[in-house]
Amino acid sequence: MRGGKGSNKKITMKDIAELAGVTKTTISRYFNGGYIKKETKEKIAKIIKKYNYEPNTFARLNAKQSRMIGIIVPALDSIVGSRVLTGLERTFREKHYMPIIMNTNHESVLELKYIEKLKRLNVDGIVLSATEITDEHRKLLKKLDIPIVIYGQEYSDGISIVNDDYNAGVEIGEYIGRKKHKNVGFIAVDEKDVAIGVTRRNGVLDGLSHYKIMDVSIAIADFSYESAMVATKELLKYKKLDAIICSTDRQAHGVYKVIKERGLKMPEDVSVISFGGYEIDEIIEPRLSTIKFDSLNAGICAANTLIDLINKVEVRNVLYINYEFIEGESVR
Amino acid sequence: MRGGKGSNKKITMKDIAELAGVTKTTISRYFNGGYIKKETKEKIAKIIKKYNYEPNTFARLNAKQSRMIGIIVPALDSIVGSRVLTGLERTFREKHYMPIIMNTNHESVLELKYIEKLKRLNVDGIVLSATEITDEHRKLLKKLDIPIVIYGQEYSDGISIVNDDYNAGVEIGEYIGRKKHKNVGFIAVDEKDVAIGVTRRNGVLDGLSHYKIMDVSIAIADFSYESAMVATKELLKYKKLDAIICSTDRQAHGVYKVIKERGLKMPEDVSVISFGGYEIDEIIEPRLSTIKFDSLNAGICAANTLIDLINKVEVRNVLYINYEFIEGESVR
């Protein structure tokens, strides 16, 4: 260690390492948010404070943190998805990370490919907005050596952030039951999407069953407007329905289109209810009753969780995102 | 230069450089779509043609093709923007490129930062959906040595793909004039956005002037629903308006909200018209009259143009995207 003029002399990382009795690598880890034992951390912090040490830019550049974050999403035209993305991006940028986004277009194989690619691009961590968790996902995620947060699907072997789909579903189902509907149709999505296709759907069906509505007509659609129109026509083919529950607001808009085309009245002839809470729901007629998840906050939480993981801070395994029920005029 | 057997002999990149009197780097830039003076370019092209030069696969592989494409967008919650992105992404994926997306959240400084970053990530080319073209943009773009296509703003020194905003604006302005409106309000966006804030606006105002409507009340908003609501209230404060023209459908939805809140009738009290053509426009009441640009196709064209640039195929400097007028029931 170089001699000095007391506590104001300029010291180097090497000096700090010597003073703390650790290696230079440990000091480097300290500055780049890597894992260090708590007591070592405190010792280093004390020395830095005492000597007023400021790491120079070169040392920071030298570190392996790329400050890049990978975000993998299933779609870029989803209103809820873009709220989550907004929360994610804003948070990462505020904390000086640069997010790069890859879109899988709902192809779950691409999720795996993109995770590998992002790893090679040397991102500090990944947020995966997953459409499904396959065995291949589990295999890849297990051996992945950078932090990852799964959004949208529960992932028992890692960290995930999910909507409270079951309880939201129950609330919708019970609301429709309480309002004395009998012949209920439901536009569901494929079960591979566990969160929406299974958990949300089960919630809805359980909620309805609390009001003895057991015989629900179900049609499967994807997340598009057009596909919901097809599903609605299918549902209306067999039975007069007095309510249609949709898995997403975009589906509900497809239902509106078909119902209006047929000259049916909402909610007098058919009630419609959904999950989403788009801003447009306020100006369509009748105003759509819907469940709105706090998706902006979900994005913020997912980003903060990933940053915590990068910095070795402990996080919860699963975080459930809250929702609010927005009562419109689409249910009689 | 090696001796040869006339114009069919095999020459190397080094030979071409010597013949053209430039450095090997310039030749490399030529093959990788970087900026070269026009006359140098022509000289190189001539030599290549004369000697039938084909860059070999090894050189190509060795050259920096990463099969990654960077896409820089100003927002991820724009409906039109997501149509363009869908077209871009689909095309790149079909042609075995891997697109990575960066969102600037309308901060044009980030556009520059992200271009530099993408270059360092070694992408084969960039599509920039630009909010504005500043002097810094021009400076950076000029020295950029990978192909770039600008979407959404005209860029005279390079390749751009833009909506035919002027003519679309004229069509809207004339339509409102033809329908005998007198007191017209217009929700514009900042002039920094030349395509929408200047070209589209000028088209609208010129179209109106063809019907002697010169005194148009103008309020400035951004692209959000909330900001359009504020602008509408401002417009309605001073004058009874019989028509409000919006720069985008999202703004029109904000106008609808305010008009409905005030108990005014559309189109009897106020006509509303806009640019966008969102699918939701079909189910709001009254159905919104709007101009729909062929944005999916714009994305496809932009992707194909970039791929052509990467492969040294000649492309047009500016490509204008067509539109269709969708007549709803929001104009009396």
Task: Give me some keywords for this one.
Rossmann fold; six-stranded mixed beta sheet; disordered N terminus; 17% strand; transcription regulation (chains A, B); Peripla_BP_I (chains A, B); DNA-binding (chains A, B); 3 domains; 434 Repressor (Amino-terminal Domain); six-stranded parallel beta sheet; elongated; Peripla_BP/Lac1_sug-bd_dom (chains A, B); homodimer; 12 helices; 332 residues; alpha/beta
Walk me through the structure:
Chains A, B: Residues 11-64 form the HTH lacI-type domain. Chains A, B: One of its GO terms (molecular function) is DNA binding. Chains A, B: Residues 9-58 form the HTH cro/C1-type domain. Two copies of one chain form a homodimer. Chain A is α/β, with parallel strands linked by helices and 332 residues long. Chain A folds into three domains: 6-62, lambda repressor-like DNA-binding domains (434 Repressor (Amino-terminal Domain)), CATH 1.10.260.40; 68-163 and 295-322, Rossmann fold; 165-293, Response regulator (Rossmann fold, 3-Layer(aba) Sandwich), CATH 3.40.50. Chain A is built from twelve helices and twelve strands. In chain A, the strands form two sheets. Chain A has a six-stranded parallel sheet with strand order 2-1-3-4-5-11, sandwiched between helices. A six-stranded mixed sheet of chain A has the order 7-6-8-9-10-12, sandwiched between helices. The longest helix of chain A is centred in the N-terminal third of the chain and has 16 residues, at 79-94. Chains A and B meet through helix 5, strand 2 and helix 11 of A and helix 5, strand 2 and helix 11 of B.
